[in-house]
Amino acid sequence: MKRTFTSSQAKEITKTYKAFLQDLRKAAELSHTLKNGIRKACERIISAKVTNILKDVPLEELNRERKGIRIKALRDAGFDNIAAVASAGKLELEGINGIGPNTAEVIKEITDAIVKSTAAAVKIQLSADSRDPDSTALVQAISAYRHAKIPSDECERIYTEVFDAVSLALDDLASGGNIFKWFFASNPNKERAAEGYRYLSMLRENGYFEDAAAWIEAAKKARAVSEEDAWDDFIEHSVDFFTLIEETAPNVLGNDEAIYGLPAELAAEIREECFYPDGLTCTLRRYQEFGVRYILHQKRVLLGDEMGLGKTVQAIAAMVSLKNTGAAHFLVVCPLSVLANWGREVRRHSRLHAVQIHGPKRNEALAEWIVRGGVGLLTYETASMISLPADFRMCMLTADEAHYIKNPKTKRSQAVRVLSLHADRLLYMTGTALENRTEEMLKLIRDLQPAVAMQAEPLKHMITAPQFREKVAPVYYRRKREDVLSELPELIENQEWCTMNAEEWYAYKEAVLAKDYAGSRRVSWNVDDYAYSSKAQRLLELIETAEEEGRKVIVFSFFLDTVAKVCSLTEERCYGPITGAVPAPKRQQILDAFEHAPAGSVLVSQIQAGGTGLNIQSASVVVICEPQLKPSTENQAISRAYRMGQPRNVLVFRLLCEDTIEEKIMDMLANKQDTFDAFADHSAAAERVSELDAATLNRIIEEEIEKIREENRYAGL
Questions:
Q1: Cis? peptide before 101, omega within 30° of 0
Q2: HSE-up of 514 (CA within 13 Å, CB side)?
């Protein structure tokens, strides 16, 4: 048989493909290697935190159980704390005068137990504002993995696909690859060698080799992510970063108790519930996936997760799973303020079709939804304007901000209940702590599962007791941020006390003496010239600092006049304002523009309008222009930025003026907040206790009037 290739060609192609297989294997293993790197980076952070904690634990802790260990001997040997002892080896401890092998073993057992228990309590936090070496190493490891995952998986697929064939071809080629072998080889071996060479040449010529080489190169490049690029990746995709940490190193983020608040038997059933995420275009956190399984398993539920934990995406994920089992129609009823946001979230996080059933063409949209299916979106007001065919069935009805329908006598509540007759499943959602409003909770539970409400009714006076929580667990599920998101960056709150000038004092005293409550609360903002407003000047300073630090700012005020002044003050930096008069689509346009705005940009909002239903993680500075009369109002506003997905420490600044009613309001709210904290989520009176009512505000004004009059008398005015 005539030879069709030279020895040098055989040698060259053999060398090329052996190197190719080696590179392909390394690239295929890269994602596994990088994921292991994430785990090790987490372990380094935990280890460093544990060491720092144990540096403050005295040696006497070794004798907590009266083991009789000679602490003085350890001190004389240079050991000052538990961290130092934990880092020492057994042989090192044995060598200490007065310790010995048996005692050294006891010491290691004790310190190992202390290290283990401390490590279990330590959690990882990541913030773009705290870029220490260990955190940076973790962020780099995750970013490298994220970028290497696809090319690495492709290399693994190709390697699996061609390894046997290429290896066989190389073996065949070797059977007659050089002149000496070819001369003595049998015809079958010569044919094998020729076929091997043809196959390897064909792979190279048809582009297969080049495509694989491109994936190998992409995997190599992904591994070399810079610190700056890694942190930028974190800022843009922080949820994905934390999800990868959860997958790779369970228990190092937040409270790993995904079943928080559920009886063990029910939780076990929910864990086994099938969830089909095909068509969901986002990554769920572990606690969110458990929430989806809860929704699917229980069928008629009230999801009460605290603001910022992603109730909307859990609802969408449940719809996606149900669609994958044959469901076609889903309906969402919500306040107008979040209608547009629902449409965006459905399209952003899934491949579900969203239909807005609202406005003058609502009947046409309703008809389209009935025929085509998908997620119908309508407001509580629109719910009373539509009717469904008597035999029409939908898979799931979702009522967002369900506290809107707490009163069964209202028109919107009745409309939702009529719609619910067409639904196989019901999902109510609210971020409001219904534990503070037992009657409201039970009214909503009656809609969902009347039998559960009947069982819970006799226990409503003991709402904090495990017995009550166990009774409502089949229908009501609530998790708080500290339960599942301890990895959130820091929330740093500041009181910015401003010193007023003569013009401000004059405007303030006039308002107080006239018993102008609104004017009295608009301290410093009720002057005509911003140059004389100490709060306005401080706000500009905060904005400038935010720009220097690469941050964006949200400014909240209760008063429309103050909102307008802040807009005028911030001029070209300003986005908004968002007020109650701004329609939902326009609000979304403002938020979209702000999300892509540069550092130093300012979103201005009336606190009632922008404090609920909006996600503004792109901002990490929150400024509140005057104290609110309810702590929950401010907390809700802050939660717009301080929520899952926030990659930076959130800085909150409350602008205040000394020696005014603001000082009295802050003192009284602080006292009431202490009461609220003692009862939060435990008492029906908690919310009301923390609010300053009209009578209290009136008393504060009267005291301030008397103070001003006394000052005037003293000054001879």
A1: no
A2: 12
Which tokens belong to 638? 């802050």
The residue behind tokens 């000082």 is: 663
Q: Tell me the C-alpha distance between 233 and 225, whole Å.
A: 10
| The pLDDT value given to residue 139 | 95
The residue to which tokens 């820091």 are assigned: 490
Which of 269, 331, 264, 321 has the alpha carbon at shortest distance from 292?
321
> In which residue are the tokens 């809107």 written?
404
| Angle value at C-alpha 310, between 372 and 475, nearest 5 degrees | 80
Task: Assess contact for 642 and 238: CB atoms under 8 A.
Answer: no
Q: What is the pLDDT of residues 663-710, one digit of tens each?
A: 888 888 776 555 444 433 443 334 444 567 788 888 899 999 988 888
Burial of 474 per CB tally in 10 Å (0-12, 13-18, 19+): buried
Q: Which residues pair with 356 in a beta bridge?
A: 377
Full-model pTM: 0.66
> Could you give the CA distance from residue 717 to residue 713 in angstroms, rounded to a whole number?
6
**Burial degree of 183 (CB within 10 A; 0-12, 13-18, 19+):** exposed
Please identify which residue in the block is written with the tokens 């960056």: 489
From the centroid of its chain, how far is CA 226? 25
- The C-alpha atoms of residue 688 and residue 183 are separated, in whole angstroms, by 99
Which residues in the chain come in under a pLDDT of 50? 1, 179-180, 182-185, 675-689
CA distances from 540 to 176, 535, 616, 658, 699 (A): 81, 9, 21, 19, 33
User: Which residue is listed with tokens 């107080």?
Assistant: 512
CATH numbers and ranges of domains, the chain? 1-253 (no CATH), 256-484 (3.40.50.10810), 491-715 (3.40.50.300)
The reported pLDDT for the residue numbered 690 is 55
Backbone angles phi, psi at 321, to 5 degrees: -60, -45
Q: What's the rounded Cα separation, in Å, for the pair 376 and 397?
A: 9
The total of other beta-carbon atoms located within 10 Å of residue 249's CB is 20
What is the pLDDT of the chain when averaged over all its residues?
85
pLDDT given for residue 679 in this prediction? 38
List helix spans (H) across 55-178: 71-76, 82-87, 90-94, 100-121, 133-174
3-state secondary structure of 684: coil
Beta bridge mates, 377:
332, 356
d(CA 499, CA 608): 27
At residue 411, the 3 state secondary structure works out as helix
**Rounded-to-integer distance, Cα 643 and Cα 611, Å:** 13
